[in-house]
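Teaching assistant here, posting this on the class forum so everyone can see the example we discussed in section. The complex has four components, and the goal was to see what a joint structure prediction looks like when all of them are supplied at once.
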Amino acid sequence: MATRTDAPTRREQILKEAARLFAERGFHGVGVDEIGAAVGISGPGLYRHFAGKDAMLAELLVGISDSLLTGAKRRLAEADGVTGSDPGPGAVLDSLIEGHIDFALDDRPLITLHDRELDRLRDADRKLVRQLQRQYVELWVGVLREVYPAVPEPSARSAVHSVFGLLNSTPHLGRPGSLPGRAVTAALLHRMARGAFAAVGEG
Amino acid sequence: MATRTDAPTRREQILKEAARLFAERGFHGVGVDEIGAAVGISGPGLYRHFAGKDAMLAELLVGISDSLLTGAKRRLAEADGVTGSDPGPGAVLDSLIEGHIDFALDDRPLITLHDRELDRLRDADRKLVRQLQRQYVELWVGVLREVYPAVPEPSARSAVHSVFGLLNSTPHLGRPGSLPGRAVTAALLHRMARGAFAAVGEG
DNA sequence: CAGGGCGGTTAGCGGTCGTTAACCTGAAGG
DNA sequence: CCTTCAGGTTAACGACCGCTAACCGCCCTG
């Protein structure tokens, strides 16, 4: 449970650069030599750390999905855990939105990969990722229907997917420097997400 | 201005299948033999219709961007053109949203390609596509700021990009059959888009 | 100080890919 | 009836890619 704030291990360097390159040019558009060059070693040296190119993508996608789900579960538990002072479902929804926005703003390449290169995985890995993604969606759907009980489940699920589309649009918002500031962007996205959900709930 | 309701020409068949395959497996993940097989000819026969694989992608992406922009301009002109009975900026915004939703629901592969494979284009084509996309965005921004004049331009632009993310999420909403019906989905997306914009405007 | 293994290197193999070359066929036109 | 040509075919080439093989040096440890 330590290892953070340490210098990044070589595996982590590789994963980070691979994520960036995959997001920029697509999984098939990046050669192993380029990934190696991005971390200062060249080509086949990567195979001391990963079984192959596929394994890097698999670890990235499983990691993203797992991290999103774990974070959401934690936020849900924190909300339910505070005995006595129930924050209300609206606050839980806000917390989920906030967590997703943090992820979308801080790990743009991963967000990009997450819904783009899933089909390049081996069957077992793809099933795992899809299962994690589905759990994440269902968790949001549950919270959303606590806030807006009148919304039928299929609509809620569609709404959640659409809001993910909205929040995951950060890669299109220009380079990290051209934004009006991270906090401002986060607040804007948050309000839009709530507004989109509200429009569903008040139907 | 005829040619529609005719049998699709071979070029059109190829473009349609290529779009589907590119969207499913990525530009680099599809071989020319597969594209050929999808239209009943095999491999190099495609070169009787296109200069190369890149040319197919270019024609697809330019076509999408141009079609989106042209449709939006037409809707804007229709609104401004009705002398006397100005429909109001809100109705124009609704019309833009409706047009984009139609596109997202009817041409899912193209929507997918549109923000995914842009970097695979030659410089000249990429610049053209980006220019068309930019015009499309600015057109939306203008209309949005008529509806919500208090929204500063950078926020409006971010909001437009985010709503595109929302509307373009249709590929994630399950296969075309599993949806609650096209009209229902379209209405849901429309309300969410308006809700998201309203949340920005009422800030 | 011997040795072992971690983390690199370069060379090269097998397969695939985009593209070209050369050839063929069936239908239209004078 | 001969020609032309659009629209196919198969063969093959050169480039590239993922991956393995073989080798090597450095550091750690007994």
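For the discussion questions: The interface with chain A takes residues 24-29, 115-117, 119-120, 154-155, 158-159, 161-169, 172-173, 179-180, 185, 188-189, 191-200, 203 of chain B (CB under 8 Å). Residues 52-202 of chain B form a domain with the Tetracycline Repressor; domain 2 fold (CATH 1.10.357.10). Think about how each of these relates to the inputs above.
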